[in-house]
Amino acid sequence: MSFTTAAQPAVLVLEDGRRFAGSAYGATGQTLGEVVFSTGMTGYQETLTDPSYAGQIVMMTAPHIGNTGMNDEDMESRQIWVNGFVVRDPARKVSNFRAERSLDDDLVANNVVGISGIDTRAVTRHIRAAGAMRAGIFSGADAALSDDEQLAIVQTGADMKGLNLSTVVSTPEAYTMPAEGEFVGKMAVLDLGVKRATLNYLTQHGFELHVMPASSTADDIRAIGADALFYSNGPGDPAASDDHVNLLRTLLKEGMPYFGICFGNQLLGRALGFDTYKLPFGHRGINQPVWDKVKGRVEITAQNHGFAVDAPIEGIVESPAGLGRVEVSHYSLNDNVVEGLRCLDLPAFSVQYHPEAAAGPHDAFYLFDRFRELLRSGALTQEASPEQTAHVMTKTSVANTPAANGESK
């Protein structure tokens, strides 16, 4: 892989054969991934450094990208995670007092192959019709490969369905973060691709964080004396994360309070016995409308997910895994996709969107308050109440299903 500041030919090749010619942007060479689009008008640095985008070529639908440059303060993780980056009109000059370097500088430094100058509207419309698919960006010497050679390379790329990427983006070693203000309790954070903003909000709400690798076990979590468990956002297919599902199911049965975001919502769904499925083109951006059934209002949310939980959005249902009553607490107003789950007999809830993101609306910040108040009130304890235990134990006929025993469907 080489680097250059001169505009060289580049091409975006989709697995169905569609091709979009443009100019090299960032590093040059070739890169493969699932091509997806993000509708955010701003926040490209947060998008690039969000570990949930690992394995994907991200295309920004906003035409002008890079105007405000890059800085260390807005990094959501230790590096850029996208496999590739697609923009229409990159900024020729950075203009922001907080900028420490240009976007192009960071793309080069992180070996991210990009492309600019293509019709991103046309690509977006194609993905919306055909669905997210494998793709490749070819620039430099790789741009000279024949059309057939480039397409063959793309079609050998990994499919996001069935892909487990948690261990790729997770912290290699556990670390702690002290609580700020009034101490509420110890929280075990399973890092499946967690964002810095999430950790900061949790500490600000009084949680002492023990951030743990994705390979952590139930014994690891018990050993720190955790009062609560948090599953973060992250990349990949939730159907490929059986270990995380079994871990969560085990601790839920012990009465461990749980809060999950994004990937953590999908894994709670699976732990409760629901299936997950791949969305045609996913939800990615900072302007996604969600209906909050509990509060009876619309929330404008930030989202980044290509998979969703398959559960009925109306009514209260019994968990197929025998973990009591469950209801969908939030759903998308665009396509009725499940955006939140709430357990009624266990101390657990989750949302599919990103409440820590604040590129304008602050509609979802209350979720951190909600979890803090639940622990503060003493309503949630590490031991399940006799009523919760009795309810779960009476579900033996359901709990002996393949889903309840940790088997994939």
From TrEMBL:
Cite the residue spans of the region called Disordered: 382-409
Binding of L-glutamine: at which residues? S52, G234, G236, F263, Q266, N304, G306, F307
Query: Among its keywords, does the record have Nucleotide-binding?
Result: yes
Q: Main EC class of this protein?
A: ligase
Gene Ontology MF term list: ATP binding; carbamoyl-phosphate synthase (glutamine-hydrolyzing) activity
The Carbamoyl-phosphate synthase small subunit N-terminal domain extends over 8-138
GO BP term, pick one: 'de novo' UMP biosynthetic process
Q: Which UniProt keywords apply?
A: Amino-acid biosynthesis, Arginine biosynthesis, ATP-binding, Glutamine amidotransferase, Ligase, Nucleotide-binding, Pyrimidine biosynthesis
Q: What is its EC number?
A: 6.3.5.5
* One Pfam family of this chain: GATase
This enzyme catalyses: hydrogencarbonate + L-glutamine + 2 ATP + H2O = carbamoyl phosphate + L-glutamate + 2 ADP + phosphate + 2 H(+); L-glutamine + H2O = L-glutamate + NH4(+)
Per UniProt, the ranges with Polar residues bias are: 394-403
> Which segments carry the region annotation CPSase?
1-186
Pathway the protein takes part in: Pyrimidine metabolism; UMP biosynthesis via de novo pathway; (S)-dihydroorotate from bicarbonate: step 1/3; Amino-acid biosynthesis; L-arginine biosynthesis; carbamoyl phosphate from bicarbonate: step 1/1
Catalytic site residues?
C262 (nucleophile), H354, E356
Quaternary state and interactors: Composed of two chains; the small (or glutamine) chain promotes the hydrolysis of glutamine to ammonia, which is used by the large (or ammonia) chain to synthesize carbamoyl phosphate. Tetramer of heterodimers (alpha,beta)4.
Q: Which family is this sequence assigned to?
A: Belongs to the CarA family.
Q: Describe the function of this protein.
A: Small subunit of the glutamine-dependent carbamoyl phosphate synthetase (CPSase). CPSase catalyzes the formation of carbamoyl phosphate from the ammonia moiety of glutamine, carbonate, and phosphate donated by ATP, constituting the first step of 2 biosynthetic pathways, one leading to arginine and/or urea and the other to pyrimidine nucleotides. The small subunit (glutamine amidotransferase) binds and cleaves glutamine to supply the large subunit with the substrate ammonia.
Question: Under which name does UniProt file this protein?
Answer: Carbamoyl phosphate synthase small chain
Q: Which organism is it from?
A: Lysinibacter cavernae
Could you tell me the gene encoding this protein? carA
